[in-house]
Amino acid sequence: MPVVDLANADRSTSHMRRAIVLAALLVGAIVMLLFANASTIRILLSGNHGLRIAQFQSAPLHTASAGADRVYLVSTQSDTRWAGGGSRANAIRIPFLHVDLWAIDSTTSTVAWRRRLRTYRNGEGTGPSLDAYRILGADGETLWLDIRGPLGVSLADGHVVADAARIEARNPRLAGKLVLDRGYVAFGRNGLQLTLDDASQWRIDAADLVAEPRDVPVSRPATIIMPAKTGTSASQFQTRALEMGNRGEHAHDMLVHIDVATGRSDALDLSSASLAVVPAGER
User: 13 lies in which domain range?
Assistant: First the structure.
């Protein structure tokens, strides 16, 4: 009959129990440290922390007026950040909405640049609907947008050249009368059109921001360019695939599909400082 060393068995059992207790204490300590760290708490509590996928909100515009053949798109992107800390109760969720302008190089099918136009906090930028952010048209080398009011940017690099304040400063008779709601800011054959609170309608010449009655031609009428028309039937919608990145540097074939009629896409992901693109098959 085999001899059982009871002393060794007791020692082994005791060591195992001590190991289990130490492991439990270690896990408990880690959990306490995690919950004592405010930034970690914010991550644990957030199911959608960080940037969401960018979504295009209006029809694109194609022009070579700034010396480069480009397609312009405007997008919105939700962002979640956390403020406060020290305890679960003090972790405050703060939503942001970013509005970006994209310039796509038509000759290479790559992103030439992206510029942030606005960032709104705590839902102040959502308004009645996200599609309120839209491209209106181009006048010369200026791209007009409706971003909760008229906004003019350079087609070359997206820097702001005009807004409601500058228009009022250039045209004192319009001061205090601008209505920034959708329907009061438009674009037509004479460029940017504004309807004031007295129902009068004016056009703004992008060359000098001078306001004249709506039907007075702008100084460069041949440079007026409208965005793409929104499709009214399935047959009018087309999709174009733009390759992003270098195959040798990325594990996936990265494509962004842009509907040329509406400019909508769910493929763009701006979750890092560099441009990241969700593979089209994972949308």
Answer: 6-36
- Which has the minimum average pLDDT: 91-95, 203-207, 237-241, 267-271? 267-271
pLDDT digits (tens, 9 = 90+) for 5-60: 545 555 666 666 776 766 666 656 554 544 444 333 333 333 445 778 888 888 99
Distance between CA atoms of residues 25 and 117, nearest Å: 51
Confidence of residue 252 (pLDDT cuts 50, 70, 90): very low
Instruction: Tell me: do 74 and 101 sit in the same domain.
Output: yes
How many domains does the chain divide into? 3
Does residue 250 have a pLDDT over 70?
no
Q: Which of 66, 216, 202 is nearest to 140 (CA)?
A: 66
Q: pTM value?
A: 0.66
Asked if 11 and 93 sit in the same domain, the reply is no
